[in-house]
Amino acid sequence: MSSKPEQKETHQANGAVVPIVPVDCLTSPDRGQLVEPSDFLGPDGNGVEVVALESCANAKGVREEDALLENGSQSNESDDTSTDRGPEPASPLKETSFSIGLQVLFPFLLAGFGTVAAGMVLDIVQHWDVFKYVTEVFILVPALLGLKGNLEMTLASRLSTAANIGQMDTPKELWRMITGNMALIQVQATVVGFLASIAAVVFGWIPDGHFSIDHAVLLCASSVATAFIASLVLGMIMIGVIIGSRKMGINPDNVATPIAASLGDLITLALLSGISWGLYKELESKAYVNPLVCAFFIALLPIWIIIAKKNAATREVLYSGWEPVIIAMAISSVGGLILDRTVSDPNFAGMAVFTPVINGVGGNLVAVQASRISTYLHMSGMPRESSEITPRKCPSPCSTFFSSDVNSRSARVLFLLVVPGHLVFLYTISSMQGGHTTLTLIFIVFYMTAALLQVLILLYIADWMVHWMWGRDLDPDNFSIPYLTALGDLIGTGLLALSFHILWLIGDRDSDVGD
After folding, report:
1. Which strands, in side-by-side order, build the sheet including 8-11?
2. In the beta sheet, which residues pair with residue 49?
3. What is the dihedral of CA 420, 422, 424, 426, to 10 degrees?
4. CA angle 13, 19, 22 (to 5 degrees)
5. What is the pLDDT of residues 429-486, one digit of tens each?
6. Which CATH class, in words, describes the domain spanning 346-382+393-514?
7. So where are the chain's domains?
8. Non-local CB neighbours of 316 within 8 Å, separated by 6+ positions
């Protein structure tokens, strides 16, 4: 009869016909009662074996329900699909603009105040001897601060996705993810720190043609030690944040990456300043200290490599995840060269305090967006598994910012946070008398224009880049955020330097751009 659920049949070796019935088809459409056993009687009246297959749609619905952290905003109606409906693409982020903004606001402000603190530190330490006589340290600043994008934010995005899709639910899975990822970021931090020091030496040598072996070793020791210690501390913080978010029912994508940056800039810059200052003082009396520091951290590399290789979750990233972090480091180093050339001019000394702020805010916001889009795509399966979600070659600005889907909604919310957030941070800097700069109206206008343009460009690039990588079997969690935060450093530093130059050219003496 047509009212009975459709049954597939298979033949056993003895010729008996065995019906194969999906599990959710064992109930009537109203889910009220089970199908009668007589429906599965053989021709002679005897029972036959029934092979029950779990419905793909039902299993997928269960996985979605387990993965989503919506605190009541998710409707249960989507789970009650009828048997005649095919599986639909996942909709993992059914959040309103208010809920997105509410969850992002606190970590965004926390991260912003972290960048303000980092800016105040840079404003102070730029007058230290090590920054005066080894100016290449300025080139290290964006590259090492960018480690939060290369490593910590990538770690946060990777673990947030793993938590949302149920890969950290058991203690065994949780421990495996922690050990593998911590070992992985130590390998990456050591290598990227070493390469960043080489880039700083090269970029410092090209304009002036001056090279000092002592300064080169100092840069190497400072960079590697800073990268290793900062990544260790921030990695542990990230793991705690994501586990806590899961227990509190908060989407880790909304809070993990901003909190990674909240302490990231401050810790990294404080470590770089302190370590480079201490090693600089030892140059004359104990020149062997710098090479020993380099050798110590490099000697630990084999241990972290072995641990990361034993973990299936990090083995692939260990082999294939180098391209984004190295290219991102090079991009950030170009931003560092701009910072070095600009801050070295006494007319633009006030730029130092604002650079970590504008770069940090832009990087934080685009990292949240990239992490959310990546989780949305992962909910629909692995790359190229879902035919409903296709990569866009070049999305229009309207589809990025003005469509009705949840990613466009979050892009609007994040963009609207730029102006009020920066106003709070600028007021904080002014109250602490940092930056050698008076906040006049024309200065605020130029600064806000640079900040808005930076975030607008980054959110648009994120929409294109994450989908583009997804369509080419690249995990956006591992590949997109390093590029995006590095571009944020380069765009932010460039636009800020341009703003300071324009202010100086038009003679805005009231803003007191210099000392």
Report:
1. 8-11, 17-22, 51-53
2. none
3. -150
4. 130
5. 888 876 666 788 999 999 999 999 999 999 999 999 998 888 888 878 778 888 998 8
6. mainly alpha
7. 128-344, 346-382+393-514
8. none
- Give a three-class secondary structure readout of 274-338: HHHHHHHHCCCCCCCHHHHHHHHHHHCHHHHHHHHHHCHHHHHHHHHCHHHHHHHHHHHHHHHHH
Using H for helix, E for strand and C for coil, what is the string for 37-101? HHHHECCCCCECCCEEECCHHHHHHHHHHHHCCCCCCCCHHHHCCCCCCCCCCCCCCCCCHHHHH
**Strand 8-11 relative to strand 51-53, pairing:** unpaired
391 Cβ contact list (under 8 Å, min separation 6)? 467, 468, 470, 471, 472
- CB-based contacts of 213, cutoff 8 Å, min separation 6: none
CA distance 315 to 409: 35
pLDDT at 7 over 60: no
Amino acid at 319: Y
- Enumerate residues 6+ apart whose C-beta is below 8 A from 422: 357, 358, 361, 447, 448, 451
Question: DSSP assignment, residue 345?
Answer: S
Q: Determine if residue 84 is left, alpha or beta; phi over 0 gives left, psi from -120 to 50 gives alpha, anything else beta.
A: alpha
Q: What pLDDT does 314 receive?
A: 83
Please give the structure tokens belonging to residue 121.
């530190």
Three-state SS annotation for 121-133: HHHHHCCCHHHHH
Highest mean pLDDT among 3-17, 62-76, 321-335: 321-335
**Phi then psi for 387, rounded to 5 degrees?**
-80, -15
Residue 203 is which amino acid? F
* pLDDT class of 257 with cuts at 50, 70, 90: low
Q: How many residues does the chain have?
A: 515
**The pair of three-digit structure tokens given for residue 75, joined into one six-digit string:** 């409707």
Helix axes 418-431, 351-378, angle to 10 degrees: 150
Instruction: Quote the tokens at residue 437.
Output: 């700069």
**Same fold flag, 128-344 and 346-382+393-514:** yes
Other beta carbons within 10 angstroms of residue 462's beta carbon come to 30
Cα 117 to Cα 125: distance, rounded to the nearest angstrom: 12
The CATH code for residues 128-344 is: 1.10.357
Structure tokens at 181: 């990822």
